[in-house]
Amino acid sequence: MISQIITFIKSGEVEEARELWNALVLQLREEVDTVIIACTDLNVVASEDFVDSSQCLAKAVVRMYVENIRGSK
Questions:
Q1: How far apart are the first and last CA of the chain?
Q2: GO: which molecular function terms (predicted)?
Q3: Which of 42, 38, 47, 55 is nearest to 9 (CA)?
C-alpha cells in the first residue's frame, strides 16, 4: 500500500494518496503507538500524529548549527 501511495503522490494524485493513507492509518490505529516516516514523499499525506524523520533531522541540524555558532564566539 505504501508503494501505491508514493506512486500517487509522485504523479500528482494527492487526494487519492491521502485516501489510501487514511485507510492505512485506520488499519494500524488499534495496534501501533507511533509511526516514523522515513520517506520524504509521505510528508504530503501524513498528519502531525506521526514522527517525520526529515523534520527531526532538520531541527537537529539547525540546533547543532546554532550551538556551533554560539560556541565559536
A1: 50
A2: aspartate racemase activity
A3: 42
pTM of the model: 0.66
DSSP string, 1-65: -HHHHHHHHHTT-HHHHHHHHHHHHHHHTTT-S--EE--GGGGGT--TTSEEHHHHHHHHHHHHH
Q: What percent of the chain has pLDDT over 90?
A: 49
How many whole angstroms separate alpha carbon 5 and alpha carbon 41? 9
* Lookup: cell for 12: 500528482
Three-state DSSP class for residue 73: coil
Residue 27 vs residues 40, 55, 57: alpha-carbon distances, Å:
22, 25, 28
- Please state, in angstroms and rounded to a whole number, the distance separating the CA atoms of residues 25 and 42: 13
